[in-house]
Amino acid sequence: MKDTLKPGIRYEHTFTVPESKTVASLYPEASEFLEMPEVFATGFLVGLLEWTCIKAINPHLDWPREQSVGIRVDISHEAATPPGFTVTATVELIKVEGKKLTFTVEAHDGVDRITRGRHERFVINKKKFDAGIAGKKNT
């Protein structure tokens, strides 16, 4: 982690929602999801927020040796967003506790605020993390 990884880092990322990011696409194996409205799925919204946090902090890590993984998500999903709308996600790093990072997160679809909340990430050494996963696979 570089000395520049400090609270106050902000990042904004835009993403146009394609058909492939609607509820039915989240788990196409789930017949219940196939009957749901064609709107941006909460699971993909979480992914967009994680992506935005990653983009915010990667310049402050020794990327790709150091990476971050999500460890907590606490968000609302306040409004439905149909495909074709552009979502703007805004994140701010508000706390650094060793390798644990806490962000405020928010997103808007041009009409409504669709989410707000907090997200925590943990900085990892990719090589060590992968070794741990390999060991888990072999148990």
User: Under the CATH scheme, which architecture would be assigned?
Assistant: Roll
Shape: globular
For the biggest β-sheet, the strand order reads: 1-3-4-5-2
* CATH level 4 superfamily: Hotdog Thioesterase
| Rg, Cα atoms, Å | 17 Å
Kindly identify the CATH topology: Thiol Ester Dehydrase, Chain A
**Alpha-beta content class:** alpha+beta
Order of helices and strands: EHHHEEEEH
Explain this structure to me?
- The chain is an alpha+beta fold.
- The chain has one domain: Roll (Thiol Ester Dehydrase, Chain A), CATH 3.10.129.
- It has four helices and five strands.
- The chain has a five-stranded antiparallel beta sheet with strand order 1-3-4-5-2.
- Strand 3 and strand 4 form a beta hairpin.
- The two termini are 32 Å apart.
- It holds the Pfam family FlK.
- InterPro entries: FlK (IPR025540), FlK-like_dom (IPR054485).
Question: TL;DR?
Answer:
This protein has 139 residues and is α+β, with helices and mostly antiparallel strands. The chain has four helices and five strands.
Could you list some keywords that capture this structure?
about 140 residues; alpha+beta; Thiol Ester Dehydrase, Chain A; 4 helices
